[in-house]
Amino acid sequence: MRYVSTRGQAAPRDFEAVLLAGLAEDGGLFVPEEWPVLTAAQWRALRGLPYPALAARIIGLFGATGLPLETICAEAYAGFGHPAVVPLVQLDHRTFALELFHGPTLAFKDMALQLLGRMFDHVLEKRGERVTIVGATSGDTGSAAIEACRDRRAVDIVILHPENRTSEVQRRQMTTVLAPNVKNIAVQGDFDACQDLVKAMFNDAPFRAEMRLSAVNSINWARIAAQIPYYVAAALALGAPDREVAFSVPTGNFGNVLAAWAARRMGLPISNLIIGSNRNDILARFLASNDMSAKPVEPSLSPSMDIQVSSNFERLLFELLGRDGTATAETMTRFRTEGRMPVPDAAWRRATEIFRGFTLDDAGTLAEIRHQWSAAGYLADPHTAVGTAAARALAPADPAVPVVVAATAHPAKFPDAVERATGIRPPLPARLSDLYEREERFGVLPNDLAAIEAAVRAHALRNAA
């Protein structure tokens, strides 16, 4: 399988090259040249597989045939805290929580990043190369990426997080990893500023070449490919391909719900996709009225969704525009310069046939956490609560269609919000019980590309010496 850029100006390449490149040279995101599509019989043949084996099968469809996927997946998920890896928990007669937080950092990002760290090791060792991974995080990607890449021989990693805009647990999970190949930087700005800095480093061609930059954010296609299997697992468990299913996904950067869309594109019978947003509701506004306009980011109880520039939307836009790279590039350029994305009406209507958007403020989030605890005995983190509220509000009219909510984080990652809502302060799992006593190490830098690049260069050169 070959991959092309959403902006049409980068040379096609294979899965391993896309893994290492992250962002395309033209500023676009890599997507499959053609989507794999499975028949009903092929979907049925996947039923009953253990999750690691299922993940290896699905990822293999995207051209990762040069990697020992069965071994990588088995190793990646061996340490997860639930034998099912991604258990389904029933909340009511038709709603299920797909728990994606049983990995080492208690968030759904572990599902993909535990694979990516091992993929990098395999490919880099084979090529005799070293890379510097740079990433931006609104809270969860950073800790999952660091946990996946810590102490790896051929990888240096630098993670940017918005200063004072993550939960304390999220910050400490990043900053208490003292491995020599790990560097954390608190940027004086919001997540969008961090994300812009990462993209600017990739677009600085000399710096990108000098540092051999790579990415583990969801701009890296391998992240999306590794997230598709858990949607497949949930759908198959609930009767697919002989039964439709809907998904409700709390999302800010659009990567997690894009993986669900990809599963649908592969032929899985997903009736519709519900997007849950907090007060930073650019995606919900787009779906309601074709208003993709950026506003200042406002801190919320669900900080991983405090985003106004949803990077992965570009991949869907490319599809909505008939895979026209020039049109996609022009649309994204106007968005960056004008703060509003001019999506043609016909393309917007195609999006609304599949996606529905829902917005929940902080008061509603606390009320939903409280509701799930009292009604189902289920302790949801603030992000998952946005997803469960969205599922109740926008469930398909057909009551026979189950709705699966992506439960994206363990409640102990956001203990203050959960305690406010329920009076219960969820404890950290035993393996993280001393997190608040661990030494932290991170730097604070302004939202300035030169300063950030200097810090990345110093980190990489020190480790290469």
UniProtKB/TrEMBL annotation:
Its EC number is 4.2.3.1. It is an enzyme of class 4 (lyase). Its cofactor is pyridoxal 5'-phosphate. The modification N6-(pyridoxal phosphate)lysine is found at residue 109. Pfam families: PALP, THR4_C, Thr_synth_N. InterPro entries: Ser/Thr_deHydtase_PyrdxlP-BS, Thr_synth_N, Thr_synth_N_sf, Thr_synthase-like, Threonine_Synthase, TrpB-like_PALP, TrpB-like_PALP_sf. NCBIfam families: thrC. Residues 2-76 form the Threonine synthase N-terminal domain. SUPFAM superfamilies: Tryptophan synthase beta subunit-like PLP-dependent enzymes. The keyword Amino-acid biosynthesis applies. Keywords: Amino-acid biosynthesis, Lyase, Pyridoxal phosphate, Threonine biosynthesis. PROSITE patterns: DEHYDRATASE_SER_THR. It catalyses: O-phospho-L-homoserine + H2O = L-threonine + phosphate. This is Threonine synthase. Pathway: Amino-acid biosynthesis; L-threonine biosynthesis; L-threonine from L-aspartate: step 5/5. One of its GO terms (biological process) is threonine biosynthetic process.
